[in-house]
Write a structure and sequence with these properties.
By secondary structure, this protein is mainly β. The protein contains no helices and 11 strands. It has strands at residues 4-7, 10-13, 18-24, 33-39, 46-52, 59-60, 68-73, 78-83, 92-99, 109-112, 116-121. Strand 5 and strand 6 (59-60) form a beta hairpin. The radius of gyration is 13 Å and the shape is globular.
Length: 122
């Protein structure tokens, strides 16, 4: 089981930016896929973005495409989510997850972090 620790959440004005980080407790396997999901108040947990740890293009939810960027720093064993032009609809708890499939379905991911809160002030 991989432990995942998210950080970087906080409060930001609408239109502002935040960068979230996800630090796994161990080096990923070659087929590892890392993803960010989010869950707003009273909402289902939804897919945000994913990236393969060892190459391949990223995939984004339509709602964040062009504003969010997922990336990885392999030497630092860290996955990031850069979030720009935030709006109130982006306010949620953001979760990092790891699996072995390029999937937008949360059931495909085996291990999850505890989440980090993002608040957007209008």
């Amino acid at each position: 089981q991989v432990q995942l620790v998210e950080s970087g959440g906080g409060s930001v004005q609408a239109g502002g930016s935040l960068r979230l980080s996800c630090l796994p407790s161990q080096r990923p396997y070659s087929r590892s896929v890392y993803a960010w999901f989010r869950q707003g108040p009273g909402k289902e947990r939804e897919f945000v973005a994913l990236i393969r740890y060892h190459g391949g293009s990223a995939l984004y939810a339509d709602s964040v495409k062009g504003r969010f960027t997922i990336s990885r720093d392999n030497p630092k064993n860290t996955v990031y989510l850069q979030m720009n032009n935030l709006n109130t609809e982006d306010a949620a708890v953001y979760y990092c997850a790891v699996g072995t499939q390029d999937s937008t379905n949360r059931a495909a991911y085996d291990d999850w972090g505890q989440g980090t809160q993002v608040t957007v002030i209008s």
